[in-house]
Amino acid sequence: MGPLSETGRRVGHPTRSGVAFRLGGFAIGLHVRRLRLGRAVTAPVADELAPPRALRIGVIVGNPKPQSRTLGVATAVADALAGGIGMPADRLVVDLAEYAPSLFDQDSDQMRDLNAAVAECDLLVVASPTFKATYTGMLKALFDRYGYRPLEGSVAVPVMTGAATVHALAVELHLRPLLVELGATVPTRGLYVTEAELSELETVVAQWASTELALVRQAVKTIYPK
User: Fold this and answer.
1) Which positions ≥6 away from 200 have C-beta within 8 Å?
2) Between 213 and which of 84, 108, 181, 182 could a Cys-Cys bridge form, CB atoms 3.0 to 4.6 Å apart?
3) What digits encode the pLDDT tens for the residues 103-127?
4) Which superfamily is assigned to 55-223 in CATH?
């Protein structure tokens, strides 16, 4: 039976208010249904689907030379991943050569903001040329500014470039362990691109992505949105 009115008369069933809830990152609006004096009244609530935030992709390049070929390789990898994952994405591009004057300044607000922005990325493409059989000190200097496991909750892809294949294992032996130490999830084998392959970069990246993209996509789904 319905509730009593102020005059003691039954006026129908209790009012049921609309409900908004969040499911898998989407805001769902339900309809409001009220019974007034025995009459059903349906008041629609906007059925809005609020999409989750854009995927945050970071491209970090530790080459002392600005606008380097390594930056081009890292950008091509990020393009392939963004297209294959198929989510709306924002991109942060960090060409560390542009931050060289502040890189070792522990009081730099610019570097503090940069470190925070990198740590907020969902997916990182971290790239370096091969210097003395490993990644550059410039790249290491950026990550040395962090505390414990700053990239936990991020997916990272290691990329290195070099003159020849003699140091091709550097991306696995040196750069991958650095990213793991920082807390990142590294689901794929790294990509090493030689100078001879730069003229066919699109093909090289596509071949790498053909086996690694699915692993990146699955890893991103487990942490997004963080």
Assistant:
1) none
2) 84
3) 999 999 999 999 999 999 999 999 9
4) Flavodoxin domain (3.40.50.360)
